[in-house]
Amino acid sequence: MRPLLIASLAWQDYRAEARLSACGVLALVAVIAPLLVLFGLKFGLVGSLTERLQRDPGVREIIPLGGGRFNAEFIHSLAQRADVAFAIPRTRQIAATAELLMPLQGRGVTVEMLPTAGGDPLLGRVAPPQGLQDVVLSFTAAEKLGARAGDQLQASFSRQQAGQVQWRQTPLQVTAVLPLAAFERDALFAPLALLEAVEDYRDGRGVAALGWAGDEPGNAAQRVYPAFRLYARGLDDVEPLRELFAERKLLVSTQAAQIAQVQSLSRNLDLVFWIIASLAVAGAVAAIGAGAVAAVERKQRELAVLRLLGFGSAALLLFVMLQALYSGVIAAAVAGLLYVLAEHGLNRLFMQVPGEYASRLLPLHYLVALAAVLLASSTAAALGGWRVSRIDAAQGIRDV
Amino acid sequence: MISLSGVHKTRGQGAQRYSLRIGQLQLQPGARVALVGPSGCGKSTLLDLLALVLAPDGAEGFALGGEDIAALWRRRALDRLAALRSRHLGYVLQAGGLLGFLDVRGNIRLPRQLLGLADDGSVERLAEALDVLDQLAKKPAALSLGQRQRVSCARALAHAPALLLADEPTAALDPVNAERVMQLLLREAEQRQVTCVVATHDETLARNAGLKVLRIACRRDADGGVTATLEQAA
Description:
The complex is a heterodimer.
Chain A: H1 3-16, H2 18-55, E1 61-64, E2 70-71, H3 72-80, E3 84-90, E4 97-102, E5 107-116, E6 134-137, H4 139-145, E7 152-161, E8 164-177, E9 187-191, H5 192-202, E10 224-225, E11 227-232, H6 238-247, E12 252-253, H7 256-298, H8 300-309, H9 313-350, H10 363-385, H11 393-396
Parallel strand pairs in A: 5-9, 6-8
Antiparallel strand pairs in A: 1-11, 1-12, 2-10, 3-11, 4-5, 4-7, 6-9, 7-8
Helix pairs in contact in A: 1-9, 2-7, 2-9, 7-10, 9-10
Chain B: E1 2-11, E2 18-27, E3 32-36, H1 43-50, E4 61-64, E5 67-68, H2 69-74, H3 78-88, E6 89-92, H4 104-115, H5 122-129, H6 145-157, E7 163-167, H7 175-191, E8 195-200, H8 203-208, E9 212-220, E10 226-230
Parallel strand pairs in B: 2-10, 3-8, 3-9, 6-7, 7-8
Antiparallel strand pairs in B: 1-2, 1-4, 4-5, 9-10
Helix pairs in contact in B: 4-6, 6-7
């Protein structure tokens, strides 16, 4: 058998029958192009929704509700879990506020204090504050103060002791300002140590590091935190973590429902796609098979002559299959082109956010589509073209 | 070159039955014979047997170039038979049997390509000898019947086969063309020392061309069927 010779003969016959070949190609394009558009829509839509969820760290946040009593060790063990991206203890809410003042402008604002450290998803690419008196400001807080990175602030913390209001002030260094999208309220992000110091001060204890006098500080190892900031690693980790806390009778608030919604949309669209795809592919396979049967019937004379010349059954089957493959390759290329046009149009129509797509395919998807088309074409042609083995050279050449 | 003894083939049943019996047929290399007989007497059947496309029902001996054809058919060694066909046989069909999707050059060189033979100019030489050199780039549909037959002859000889089979190669042509095609075919075959078997109903044409005539005789049997017998070669 000479595959190259057969491929060349099959191609010349395919070209000689250009009109019939075009019909075969169009029939395939009619199946492949809509499937590509459908899959592109599914992939683009679900991808955009998922990406939107992934971009917003708030979706992955797990917020403990009600007062809890956690020690540092427990929260540290949470932070070590593979499904947790970031976990840090919080001090009491009431102790976690600060009055900030820009001495030069004379502007002030009251902000909430959030503990942070390296890996905090809210900080994103902003470097976390390192020293005890370093802070990162939220966009709105910085705006109200007129502060920029590198500025120095005056922070005041108050407490009531024996009916007397007392104040302590300390300078803070602004190391960075977060973008508005990262956090929309007035806040400062500081190392946990600063929040602990403020809480100690409120509780009447002294803080040696800031030179604040007071009672003897408590044992750091036995410190109890009422809450923590925790972010799951991925969207899929939120629900298992929620279940973990529920098992421990710990009430938490999550966005698990929102995530589940997108995931169920993805699953349902998958199902719809595969139902349509399998129906369409079954139809295409039947059409290609029928085309091969018709081709063998129509080319009986040529195939008989080829057999008389000494081509074997396998060579004749290859001849028929190759012609189906030619149709498959051309149809896949045309369908790919049509899809790209459709994708362009759909994305222009539906694009809301730059970087998001209504319809989208990866190079891998094109390759998979091509491989599927070729596999379906050759299988169907082999099934339909099997009759070539029954072509009788003696019969076929008589009615020449 | 080729030797058949006690080969028979039957098609159909009852009044539709047709049987061909070949007692003895020996052809030496370079032998040139014509199978002559009325139409329907089984010339094509014998050619198909020789062309290795029709399985004999039984054969005491059937050898081609040293190969036991009867055994190959018994084993259904179809690929081996196909290989023998492409190597040793050239076949001229009644109406050419050219492939419409190939041009004349593609048709003539196809048997050579199938054998993997290099292009040695023999396609052009044959085309010139058979007077179709100008037609090499045309599709068969653009040729006259006579030209098609000459292209078919060129294709049958292109790969230097040992045995040339021709089934009524001139039946569709006018007498002038018929004689010309026959002469060209036999001249080229003779130069190449090819064994020729030409089936024709035209005994005069065969004799004029210098072919040795073998007759196939038909007789109707009691059951209404027909039995054809090859006249013993002298």
